[in-house]
Design goal:
This protein is α+β, with helices and mostly antiparallel strands and 86 residues long. Helices cover 49% and strands 14% of the residues. The N and C termini lie far apart (70 Å).
């Protein structure tokens, strides 16, 4: 297995353990809304929101620019001074 695949599997297992251990009922109050449910659902949606924000930020940061400039040509002098004779 590749090293990246192992790390992804380890992180998924740790995240699953985190979700399973946080099954207590909790209340979420946001301005006029009040939600009640298991804590792991809230943790999962916060994780999903963070992943989405990170993915969109990374996608916007790697836009490729199309260069229309011509390549720079090296300067070659037309008249070279004569070399002094020893």
């Amino acid at each position: 297995m590749k090293k990246k695949t192992v790390w992804i599997l380890v992180l998924v297992v740790l995240f699953a353990i985190l979700l399973i251990q946080n099954s207590t009922k909790t209340d979420l109050k946001l301005y006029f809304w009040s939600l009640s449910g298991p804590l792991f659902i809230l943790v999962f949606f916060i994780f999903l929101l963070g992943f989405l924000v990170g993915f969109l930020a990374a996608k916007n940061g790697h836009k490729k620019e199309i260069k229309t400039e011509e390549p720079v040509k090296p300067h070659v002098p037309q008249d070279l001074p004569a070399k002094p004779q020893p």
